[in-house]
Structure formats: C-alpha cells, structure tokens
Amino acid sequence: MTPIDAEALIVGGGLAGSMVALELAKAGRGAVLLERSKAAHHKVCGEFLSAETIHYLARHNVDLPALGAISLHSVRLVLRRGIVEDRLPFAAYSLTRSVLDEALLTHAAAAGVVVERNSAVEHLQPQGAAWCASVRDGRSFRSANIFLATGKHDLRGFSRPAGTHRGLIAFKMYYRLTPQQHAQLGAAVELILFPGGYAGLQPVEDGRVNLCLLVTGKCLKSVGSNWAGLVPYLFRHAPHLEERLRGAVSLLDAPLTASHIPYGHMQAASRDGLWHLGDQAAVIPSFCGDGMAIALHSGAVAAHHFLKGDRAETYQLQLRSQLGRRLALATRLSQAMVAWPEAAQIARLVPGLLSRIASMTRIPDTALLR
Ligand SMILES: Cc1cc2nc3c(=O)[nH]c(=O)nc-3n(C[C@H](O)[C@H](O)[C@H](O)COP(=O)(O)OP(=O)(O)OC[C@H]3O[C@@H](n4cnc5c(N)ncnc54)[C@H](O)[C@@H]3O)c2cc1C
C-alpha cells in the first residue's frame, strides 16, 4: 500500500500528542495523529490536575468545570502517626482521563487535525530523509517529522531506559463512598503512606473517588501478587484507608494496573531526530501530580521549536534544562517515601513543608509557554 504522506505525524493521542497537534493546527500546519484506542478509555492515573495542567488546557479553551471537573483545595499527607493538612499552593482540579483525553482529541479534530482512531503503530522505520509508520491494519504513514507520544508504551526499537526509581507497580480503582466518607474526604487530595508504597485518594466527577497507588514488587509478592491480597494489607497498615473505603463500592470489575514505570527517566538529546513527548520524554513520580502537565508542556514546547524551524535535539535539550533538576529531586523524594515512610514524619514538624515540596517538584512558572 502506498504510504500516506503527512507534514507532521503524531504517534499517540494522549495529552502530549493532542497538545502538539492542537498547537500545530493553531499555526495552520498539517498534522495526522494516530491513536491506538477505538474510543474513550480509562488510564492508570491519579487524575489530579495541577495549576500547570490547567494553564495548558486553558490555552486551548478546555472548559474543565463544563466537563465535570472537581475543584480541589487541600492536600492531606496521611502518616502512620498523624495527618498533615495544607492548603494547595495553587488551583487544582480532578477529572477522569476518559473524559479529559477524549475532550482534547475532539478539540484537535475540530481544529483540523486528522485524528485516526483504532490506529496502533507497530513499526517506525527510517525511509530516506523521512520515517514510515506502519499501522496494525496495514496502512502506513510517511513523514519527516515524527512526534512520539505513546506514553508508557514504548514502540519496538524505541525503549526508554529503566529510570532511577524502578520496580513499582501501579493500581487504580474507582469507588463510590458512603455519603459520610465522601464528606470526610471533602475537596482534598490525600496522599497515604504505607510500608512498601503510597496511595492517592481524591474525588472525581459523578460522585466517584479515584484510588491510585504504587507498591513495590516485593510488597506485592508478599501479599500473593494480587489485588485481593493487597486490599487487606493496605487496610491493616493504613487504617485511614480502611476508614475511607470500608463498605465503599468498587466501580471497576478489576483494578487497572501498570508496571515497569521508568520513574526519573529524562530523555537525553535525541540523536534519532524524533520529538519525544510526554512520558516518552520525562517520567516524574506520581505523588507530584504533574505528569499530565509535563505531557502538555512538552507538546507545546516541541511545537514551538518545530514552528521556529529548530531540530528536535534543541527542544529536547531545553526540556531537560527546565525539568531535569526538579525531576531528580522528585525521584529522590519518592525513593525516600517508599524506603523510609517514617522519615515523612518531618512534615509534621515543619509547617508549610508540603507546599514547599509541591512548588519545588513541578514545572517552574517561568518555563510555561504563555
Ligand atoms: C500511578 C500513576 C498515577 C499518576 N497520577 C497522576 C496525577 O494524578 N496527575 C498527573 O498530572 N499525572 C499523573 N500521572 C502521570 C500521567 O498519567 C502521565 O504522565 C501522562 O498520562 C502522560 O501523558 P502522555 O500523553 O505522555 O501519555 P498517555 O496519556 O499514556 O497517552 C499515550 C497514548 O498513546 C497511545 N498509544 C500507545 N501506543 C501506541 C501505538 N503504538 N500507536 C498509537 N497509539 C499508541 C495510547 O493509547 C495513549 O492514548 C500518573 C501516572 C501513574 C503511573
């Protein structure tokens, strides 16, 4: 089959892919976006939308309250011996990824991007000065400008290094709490530490709550390597979680899971000429709640450089200089939280520490594209 030519080809239609597509369309440039899934779907994600995420969504007129997003005001760090609560130092929302990602793809299509659903890229190969992407259904697309935005899934031949904080397994489940439990959670995101990992709990739209957690492989193995064994373990070691979830109704047949997450990965200057975006470029530990912002930011910054006529390498170096130190700090903190949860007690002694950490582990304000 003759390849279909595209000025810019975006592989992956999550936040990073949609963002670069929207930016290119806004500048009147042609873009084809290939997305593996057929329709809206759930993703392993805590679904906390930080100020930086909100900033980039507003850039493309995504109306979060109209989509049902919930406004969050405070963060609660739940330790074995007490709870530390701080007001969030910035505006924040929560919204399920199935709604958010779909809204962005719809915006991209309305802006003129050719959005191809049910189009999983199986191979990406150089072809002269361009690249050829082969899709599972037999079609192929050719472009000199490839934006790689496949999130946690590496394309064959483009594996990312393992990251500096390895071996964590992620689980996500939606629940419906009792009215009393829901009221106690309020408009807060809770970060709950337990031996062997940590969990995030927050309300999302339609009266649901999102429980998203990370656990070490060793800890998971010790409870039988399954969810049925993990839940009682969590309740035993984090009584707060038991209080929140006792009697709550699980809303998915089984939790969503992800493993081999390369936390701490920061893409080096790419010599392959590809534009690595989102999780393909940088993977920040989940407790920061800024991975989506990085995905959107990387899409916007990549488009900015592309439109200036820069090479992908220039973009990749800029992203690294903006995020590298913050990502390294967040990764060290994540390692410490899992290895020595007791050390987090320091947050009880230093007022405002949570807010300070939150500010130091996100995209600096000065780096955001206005
Ligand atoms: C446990 C956990 C909790 C998290 N919590 C938060 C949080 O609360 N807040 C936050 O901001 N961030 C959070 N994150 C991070 C955030 O989810 C990611 O950083 C973000 O989704 C990355 O966006 P992306 O566009 O790079 O990838 P994705 O959103 O994963 O999108 C990639 C897209 O590419 C598609 N795709 C994959 N392979 C192919 C292929 N071969 N061909 C075509 N399409 C393909 C996929 O279907 C997908 O739609 C969390 C992450 C984890 C693991």
Description of the molecule:
The chain has twelve helices and 18 strands. It has 370 residues and is of the alpha/beta class. It is globular. The termini are far apart. Pfam families: FAD_binding_3. InterPro entries: FAD-bd, FAD/NAD-bd_sf, Geranylgeranyl_reductase. It comes from Terriglobus roseus. This is Dehydrogenase (Flavoprotein).
SSE string, helix = H, strand = E? EEHEEHHEEHEEEEEEHEEEHHHEEEHHHH
What portion of residues is helical? Answer: 25-40%
Largest sheet: 9 strands, mixed
CATH topology of one domain: the name is FAD/NAD(P)-binding domain
Give the name of the CATH architecture of one domain: 3-Layer(bba) Sandwich
Low-confidence stretches: none
How many beta-strand segments?
18
> Which molecules are bound in this entry?
flavin-adenine dinucleotide
Mean pLDDT: 95
How would you describe the shape?
Answer: globular
The radius of gyration computed from the alpha-carbon positions, rounded to a whole number of angstroms, is: 20 Å
Distance between the termini: 42 Å
Beta-strand content: 25-35%
Identify the CATH class of one domain: Alpha Beta
The CATH superfamily of one domain bears the name: FAD/NAD(P)-binding domain
Number of helices: 12
Structural class: alpha/beta
Protein name: Dehydrogenase (Flavoprotein)
Pfam families: FAD_binding_3
GO molecular function: FAD binding
InterPro entries: FAD-bd (IPR002938), FAD/NAD-bd_sf (IPR036188), Geranylgeranyl_reductase (IPR050407)
